[in-house]
Design a protein that fits this description.
alpha+beta, two-stranded antiparallel sheet, 9 strands
Amino acid sequence: MLEYESVFRRKELHDMFAEGEVKPLDDLYLVEDTALTVQELNKKLEFCKGYKRKRAEDISNEMKVIQNKIDFFKSIIVSTLKQNKQKSIDFPNSCSASARVQKPKWQVDDEEEFILVLQEAQKAGEDIDVVLEKVIQYNVKKIEASKLLSIWEQNGKLDKFLEKAKNSKKVVSKVPSKTTVVLKFAEIEEEEDFAEDMPIPVKVGKNNTEDYDTL
């Protein structure tokens, strides 16, 4: 893609982000430029993470904006692949994009209330040590909590344990299944510069000796 075309497409992507509407691209092959845009944003995000300690608040806000753009452009790729009935696409020596369906997962919305739920479940004989870790206070391991909530849901225990919370409807919620995209980028090898040996001019002195000082 020519440079001016790339610039135009990037502007089109950011205009779509500003509008906030995920829709398929006009051409399946434009997924490449969208994927490379995500790659650039990921690099910027990593820089922000390293710089966050110095300017925590400003950098956090910038990271949120960048992450929103990354998620949005990935959604565009997913939408474009679906529109063209493709599960993946590969751009040789550039990048690839493949869609995958994530399983639904639970998220903890009120950690304090959920800890009370877990403690009551522990009294009832449930093993919750893998979910709770005790430092100075309890911290919920969110990935393990999602697994446990799925097991409780399957075994019909979920509502029973959630009843122990003051407001059971706000303790946890289930994130629906969604299709995400996996991006892989080609590694570009950097060319090394080799300096050729340059002959050093030598001036011959009066006694046929090599004189470097007068060069």
